[in-house]
Amino acid sequence: MGRVDEEILTLPSLSLSDGIRPLVFLVTDLRQWHFCRRIVYYRFNWPPVRPQPYILEEGKEAHEEVWRRIVRRQRLRGIPEGEYFYEVGWVSERWGLSGKVDLVVVREEEAIPIDFKDSRKVEASHFWVQLAAYGLLVEERFRRPVLRGFLYSIPRRQAVEVPLTPPLRRKVIKTVQEMAAVVQGEAMPEGPPTRARCVACEFRRFCNDRL
């Protein structure tokens, strides 16, 4: 990311409501925000709340980890050559984000984040936003330009290249700002536009207007 982007991506200092602790979101919060804004609200403002069904999601992640161990011994189709770094974590108060990206390919002229998805369709916009968020973290961590990333479909065993453009990066920052406004204001956000998303939600019993 060049100096032009430095001017475009300006994020004010974020903090929790006590004004002391830095407010840092998980990259996965971006996906949750797309699905239902209340999930992010509950995570920060009702931290003890962790419904049992959430374990199902953790089990799914554990399954994917087993798969990743297998892939490490294989050549990944469509992924550029370079030095491979697996499960790279980074915390950035600058961007108000933290996360662990599945794979980073480091080349002389660039660093490339790779995000594995247990889905045949990886063209969804929230997947792209997540990848762009990882791009910001990877760029800060490896001090190399991040101009593209890849979404790797586990079922298809195929990689899709995603240009990490300034508009996509701006969307990440805008989303972080929106989440910060809700968390810092401690005001319950609106639920999703359709109640179909509430049927299997682990937080459903806490939303009286969604029962």
Describe the protein's architecture and organization.
The protein is built from six helices and six strands; from the N terminus they run H-E-H-H-H-E-E-E-H-E-E-H. It is globular, with a radius of gyration of 18 Å. Helix 2 (27-35) packs across helix 3. Strands 1, 2, 3, 4, 5 and 6 form a six-stranded mixed beta sheet that branches. The protein is 38% helix and 19% strand.
Rg over CA atoms, rounded to whole Å, is 18 Å
Spell out the helices and strands N to C. Answer: HEHHHEEEHEEH
Name the helicity range: 25-40%
Poorly predicted ranges: 1-12, 52-56
Overall geometry comes to: globular
**Could you tell me the number of beta strands?**
6
Structural class: alpha/beta
Q: How can the largest sheet be summarized?
A: 6 strands, mixed
What is the tally of helical segments? 6
Q: How large is the share of residues in beta strands?
A: 15-25%
Oligomer: single chain
Separation of termini?
45 Å
- Let me know the average pLDDT: 79
